[in-house]
C-alpha cells in the first residue's frame, strides 16, 4: 500500500505541476483547453462504461475468472463500436461545416478532435487498468495507473520546459499516447491471466460451465451505473447551484479549496479501494464469514489514509493558498477543513461502494442514492442561499454523511443476512 500511496502522491504532484507549467509556457487559453480535456475524461470514464463495468470487474475478481473473459471480449467490441460512432459523429459535424457550433463553446476543430480522442483513450485505459486490479494484479495495475495519471504529465512538464512541446495539442497527443500504451500493456497482462486461468485446476473442474453473457453482466451492473451517475452529480451539485447565488470570485475560491480537498479521496482510491474490491469478491467465495471484518478494516484504512493527508493539507494550507495568490484567513481555513472532512467520508464511501458491488446490492444502492439526491438538492439550495460558499461546503459534507450512512447500512444488512442464510443452510448441506 505504501508504494501505491507514493505513486499516487507523485502523480497528483505532477498533474498539479503540469497545470502551472502550461499556464506559464502556453498561457491561460491552453489551461482552459487542458481543463476541458480533464473534464471530458472524467465524464467519459463515468458514462461510457454503460453499466457493464461493476459486474464484469466483480466476476473477474472471483476465484475462477475464466467465464468472464468471454463477456470481456464482447464488451471490447461494444466499446469499439461506441468509439467509432462518436468519432463518426464528430467527423460528420465538422465535415458539414458545423464548426461554428463548436466555436460557440470555445472549441476549434483540432481541439475538439484532441479532446474526443483523449477522452476515448482515457476510458479505454481506465477500463483495462481496472480489469488488471480485478484480476488480483495490483503491482502491474498500480504501475500502469501511474503511467496514465502521472508519468505522462511528468514528460509533458519536461517537454514544455525544454521547448520540445509547443502547443496544448502536443500535450494532449502525449496523453493519448500514454493511454494507448497502458491499454496495450494491460491487454498483454490480461492475456497472460487468461492463459493461466485456462490451465488452472478450477478451469478443468468447471469446463462445462457456460460463459456468462454480456447481457447478464449489463443487467447486474446497470443499477450501479445509474447510482454512480447520481453519486457523480452529488459530487458537483453544490457547485452548479452556487453558480446562481455566489459571485464568480467566491465560487472560484470554493472550487480551488474543493480541488485541494478532493486529492485525499484520490489518494484513498488508488491505495485502498482499487485492491479492496477484488479482495471482497475473493473473500465472499472463500471465507464469507470474514467479509464484514474485512470491510471494516478496509474502511478504517481509507479513513486513516485520508485523515493523515487531510491533516498535512491543513498544516500546509497557507503555502497551498499562496500558490494561487489566495488569502488564507479563518474563513478559507474553515471552508477547506469542512471539505476535507467531507472527502474523508467520500473515501470511506468508495470502500463501501466496492463492498456493495461484491454483494450485488445494485437495486438497493440505486434507490437509496436517488432518494438521497432528491432530499439533498433543496437542502443544498437553502444552505448556499443563506451561508454562501461555506453553505456549499456544509451541503457537500451533509451529502457525504448521507452516502456513507446509506451504503454502510446496505452493506451491513446484506452481509449479515448472507451470513445468517449460510449458517441456516450448513446443517441441511451436512
TrEMBL record:
Keyword Membrane listed: yes
Membrane topology: Multi-pass membrane protein
Superkingdom: Bacteria
Keyword hit for Cell membrane: yes
Compartments (UniProt record): Cell membrane
UniProt keyword list: Cell membrane, Membrane, Transmembrane, Transmembrane helix
Transmembrane feature ranges: 33-53, 74-95, 141-164, 170-188, 217-236, 256-277, 298-317, 329-345, 357-377, 383-412
Gene Ontology CC entries for this record: plasma membrane
PANTHER family: O-ANTIGEN TRANSPORTER-RELATED, PST FAMILY PREDICTED COLANIC ACID TRANSPORTER
Name of the protein: Putative polysaccharide biosynthesis transporter protein
